């Protein structure tokens, strides 16, 4: 028996916003894509409606085509992860186990659309397993949105200072060394000169740092700025000329390198 996911939008069909339902279903499919194991080599499961009732918004979703590395057990695990995750987000402000950032974003879009389509909620569960059913409501969307609220703490970022803006607001940006992420830096008029002098250089900026729900740095209110040396890129061979006179045995560098190649 193939795994199937049941989606039933509660409420009078005459009062349900069809456009929001379609948007919600698309986002649920995107959520399944985010929960797919990585062993498929970048390919994604194609989905089909194994059941579609026209007199009400009731569907069942099953796999249409599975890429190499994905089987029925994989699809069943994806369905279970979706249902368990929605149960978690319906009752708590937390990221469900096994969900990544893409899954959270897709779930937010799905819950936002489906809760706008009907106030009665949307039942989601595994076909042939009534105990797995959960009801997605506006509370799911509310909890997921709360995850996205920025959290502030004292912190610092290291990277290159770029993109200075002085028109209507004083801002610049740091591209971080570790992940190459863009962090907006806000500063006051008394800090403008030091910021301008540090443009294009590698710096450490300290202050009140706002992070998103994923923990990624987003905005820093600048308190202190320090210019740092560039990371050591190593030295060229030509820069070491004359430092080790006996290294080549008295022959030229070219002759030495040719002799080394000849022995490899």
TrEMBL record:
Name of the protein described by the UniProt record: Uncharacterized protein
Naturally occurring in which organism (per UniProt): Amycolatopsis regifaucium
